[in-house]
Specification:
The chain contains 27 helices and 2 strands. The chain is mostly helical. Among the domains are: 15-66, no CATH class; 177-228 and 287-417, no CATH class; 742-810, no CATH class. The chain has a two-stranded antiparallel ribbon.
């Protein structure tokens, strides 16, 4: 029973499932019925389901049939109506076909017109699209054309800007066109072309700047000169040494202005054309003469192209090379001032350009680079000036060079370059300038001394007297009282030498101008140079004149007089230097002039030369002496040569009236001593082997003539018998032999009051030996043989005693 209940339950579930599946089949779309049917086939009650399906189909068929029977009459009516409509429709179709045919016939022209209109509209649309595209491309083409025009006119920086706009603004809008691709491909080439062309312009600029550096520097130095002249006028500061009536202009005014040969060279070189200007017109600034636009353009171009560092390195490298060329002086620079001027102009021009570049560009050059170039330029310039200035022997050229160096330094100092080393070097050139001045003045002094007549200067009128007194500081009240014509005691070389010393001081002062030296330094420099002039140059010139072979006693006397007056004028030279330097001589460390010493030394040398010259003249007269030492005859008069000698000495000492008293006295005493010594040597010389008493008496007459000359006082100032003492040795010796007073001589020998104190036993013995054998040949004693023998014995005895005196003296 349970099984029956279970079977009944299962059949109920199966029937419900089948009912569900059937409802799904009825309600589900045909395309989705597959899963439903699959569940039927998967189940086990397939047959029963088919039976229920068949039952359901039959139920639906019966319902359809019932429905069809209910609506059949309406269906038939509808079919009848439809058949009627078909006929009407056929008629309508025929009408429509006919109407269509007519319409087709009538609209054929319209269709043709519409086709034409369609083509026109299509063309219009194409044209509009083309215009739109062209309007988009036209700015690109215009920019490209503008770029080409700018390239042709060498406006490279605007061309680069145009290229930037073209690349970043216009070309991206039309990048799909082929011509744009061509342009894009050409852009790197155009950039390189702009770089190359701008670099070429820069090279032309650098080359032209190198060629025109001297003109730029010339203008800059001229501008600095005019500015300094204006400053001097404003400040109204009197320059050292302004008391001099006329002076050279310290600086060189450059007359040449910058000129260009053609407009093309003007553009290529960057040098602007400047018309010649009058001296009183304003000189244009050096930077106004140069067109720096090639540098600026090239710098901007390389900056935009991202190659600024490359450009800076190239520019600096090229300018360094140009600096080395500019600093290389020409080999013949020292020959003329123009050589130095051109050298300085080139250097100034170079650094004026660099200074302008420094202040007008952002870092193209920097201060460190400029300072490095200046240090190199300064060292090379100083070395070149030291070398070339050493060849210069003309003081005027050295002075002009100094003025040019000062202007060179002042010009560069305006642009901020340190120039202290240049002024230090000028102090070195100052020493060389002093040497060249000394050489020049040596020639001047030599000409003055050679051309002088060594005679007092005659003046015949008051005008001449005042003129000479104005040339040389000389005051003599007694001379002023004398009537005309009268004479100055000195010769012409005194005022000439004095004025040349002043000229030398002026020349030294010229060099010290504008060197930024203090008055004390200028004073010290002038005094040291003047001392060199006096102690070396003038002293040597005077010594050379004094030592000349053909110098006469008159000339020597005049030299002594001249140097005496020049010595007195030294204090006026001191005052002259003080006046032009405004440094008092009492100032500490002030150098004193050594002129007094110089002229004293020259005077002493002249005095010595007078003494020597007198002695030589005396020797010349003594060479004319012709004594017959074997003669027994006496002429009762002095020898002719000695008479002439005494006359010469009298006339010579008469010239000595203008000499200082001591000089004349010394010269007279020296001459008398030399004459006495020479006469003694003449008497005792070895060639005179024998002499007679008569010859000795003749010699005694000559000595008496000399003593008479000494007593006559040829030079005032001697005390009585002072000048005769020069002949005392001869006098005592001759008295001893002529008076034959040997007993007195031998008895009193060695005593202070001895009558023959100045007779030397050796001298006496020598002369006695010469007289020993002459008695045998003397006719006067031929008949007195006994006396002759006694005389000979006496001579032998005296000679023996003299030898004893000599030997005892030596022992």
């Amino acid at each position: 029973m349970d099984r029956a209940k279970m079977a009944e339950a299962e059949s109920l579930e199966t029937a419900a499932e089948h009912e569900r599946i059937l409802r799904e089949i009825e309600s589900t779309d045909t395309a989705c019925i597959g899963p439903t049917l699959r569940s039927v086939y998967d189940g086990e009650e397939h047959g029963r389901f088919m039976e229920k399906l068949e039952t359901r189909i039959r139920n639906h068929d019966r319902e359809i049939e019932k429905m069809c029977n209910f609506h059949y009459q309406g269906f038939v009516d509808s079919i009848t109506e439809l058949l009627k409509v078909r006929g009407e429709a056929q008629k309508l179709k025929n009408q429509v076909t006919d109407t269509n045919r007519k319409l087709q016939h009538e609209g054929k022209e319209l269709v043709i017109a519409m086709e034409e209109l369609k083509q026109c509209r299509l063309q219009q649309r194409n044209i509009s699209a083309t215009v739109d595209k062209l309007m988009l491309c036209l700015p690109v083409l215009e920019m490209y054309s503008k770029l080409r025009d700018q390239m042709k006119t060498k406006r490279h920086y605007p061309a680069l800007k145009t290229l930037e706009h073209l690349e970043h603004t216009y070309l991206p809008q039309v990048s799909h066109y082929r011509f744009c691709k061509v342009m894009v491909d050409n852009i790197p080439k155009l950039r390189e072309e702009i770089k190359d062309v701008s670099m070429s312009d820069l090279k032309d600029f650098l080359e032209s700047i190198r060629k025109h550096s001297d003109k730029i520097g010339e203008t800059a130095m001229k501008q600095a000169q005019q500015q300094r002249n204006l400053d001097n006028i404003v400040l109204q500061q009197p320059r050292i040494g302004s008391k001099r009536k006329s002076k050279k202009d310290a600086y060189i005014i450059f007359d040449t202005e910058i000129e260009s040969t053609s407009p093309k060279s003007e553009q290529d070189s960057g040098i602007l054309d400047v018309e010649d200007e009058e001296d009183d017109e304003e000189v244009p600034g050096a930077q106004d003469l140069v067109d720096f636009s090639p540098v600026y353009r090239c710098l901007h171009i390389y900056t935009v192209l991202g190659a600024r560092e490359t450009f800076e390195n190239y520019y600096r490298k090229q300018r360094r090379k140009q600096a080395r060329l500019v600093l290389q002086p020409p080999s013949n620079m020292h020959e003329t001032l123009d050589g130095y001027r051109k050298y300085f102009n080139q250097i100034v021009g170079f650094f004026v350009v660099e200074d302008h570049i420094l202040h007008t560009t952002q870092g193209l050059v920097n201060r460190a680079y400029i300072d490095e170039l200046w240090e190199m330029a300064l060292s090379k310039t100083i070395a070149a000036l030291r070398t070339h200035s050493s060849y210069c022997s003309d003081p005027n050229l050295v002075l002009d060079l100094k003025n040019l160096i000062v202007l060179f330094a002042d010009t560069l100092q305006v642009y901020g370059f340190p120039v202290n080393q240049l002024f230090d070097m000028l102090l070195e050139i100052r020493d060389q300038y002093s040497e060249t001045l000394l050489k020049k003045w040596a020639g001047i002094f030599r000409n003055i001394l050679d051309s002088d007549n060594y005679s007092p200067i005659p003046v015949t009128s008051e005008e001449m007297y005042k003129k000479m007194a104005g040339q040389f500081p000389f005051q003599d009240i007694e001379l002023e009282k004398q009537p005309f014509p009268k004479k100055f005691p000195f010769s012409e070389f005194v005022p000439k030498v004095y004025n040349q010393i002043k000229e030398f001081i002026y020349a030294c002062l010229k060099f010290s101008e504008d060197l930024h030296l203090s008055s004390t330094e200028v004073d010290d420099m002038i005094r040291k140079s003047t001392n060199l002039l006096l102690t070396r140059t003038l002293s040597n010139s005077l010594q050379n004149v004094i030592k000349r072979k053909n110098i006469g006693l008159t000339e020597l006397v005049q030299i002594i007089i001249n140097t005496t007056h020049l010595e007195k004028s030294c204090k006026y030279l001191e005052e002259f230097i003080t006046n032009i330097t405004n440094v008092l001589p009492e100032t500490v460390h002030t150098t004193k002039l050594y002129g007094t010493t110089t002229f004293k030394d020259a005077r002493h040398a002249a005095e010595e030369e007078i003494y020597t010259n007198l002695n030589q003249k005396i020797d010349q007269f003594l060479q004319l002496a012709d004594y017959d030492w074997m003669s027994g005859d006496l002429d009762n008069k002095a020898s002719d040569y000695l008479v002439d000698l005494i006359a010469f000495l009298r006339s010579t000492f008469a010239v000595f009236t203008h000499l200082p008293g001591k000089v004349a006295q010394t010269a007279c005493m020296s001459a008398c001593k030399h004459l006495a010594t020479s006469l003694m040597q003449l008497l005792l010389e070895a060639e005179v082997r024998q002499l007679t008493l008569g010859a000795l008496q003749q010699f005694n007459l000559d000595v008496r003539e000399c003593e008479q000359f000494a007593r006559s006082g040829p030079v005032p100032g001697f005390q009585e018998d002072t000048l005769q003492l020069a002949f005392i040795d001869l006098r005592q010796l001759l008295d001893l032999f002529i008076q034959w007073d040997w007993s007195t001589y031998l008895a009193d020998y060695g005593q202070p009051n001895c009558k023959y104190l100045r007779v030397n036993p050796v001298t006496a013995l020598t002369l006695l030996e010469k007289m020993k054998d002459t008695s045998r040949k003397n006719n006067m004693f031929a008949q007195f043989r006994k006396n002759e023998r006694d005389k000979q014995k006496l001579i032998d005895t005296v000679a023996k005693q003299l030898r004893g005196l000599i030997s005892s003296h030596h022992s």
